[in-house]
User: Fold this.
Amino acid sequence: MENPDLKIPKIRKQVNLWVHPEGRVVGSLFLREQSVHHAGPERPDEVLNQDSPFVVLYREDPAELRFYNRRAIVRVEYADDALPESAHLTILPCRLDLMDGSRLEGEIREILPADRARLFDYLNRPDVRFLRLHLPEGGICLVNKAYVIHVTTPGNG
Assistant:
């Protein structure tokens, strides 16, 4: 018999995964109702940037749970989660060229320490496996740094 007091309440967040070599997969990640890092629900990047090698994805068609190796996930797209406005928010416009030939443009919007607020600093953070890129048409794309060939800033080729 299960004890409901031992379960961590989770909500499903629909995402599009691009997995190597499988391709596009539609499903839902399981997010905590309350993040351990900030007020409000957990975000997909918090789940993907964890240390464990596998992440759980629920597929509706066919209805099944899949456990994806984080190293095989190229990128994840999902509807924009409104972040609280902050005077300390750093906005870093950039373009990412990936190993699969795709090019993504957008902005990284993060609260970063003043002495580590450059794009180069953010790209080299050891605790971030998936970069959170805000896309111009709306939505967020989490990009696995292992699949990034290079990053440029607007006006720099």
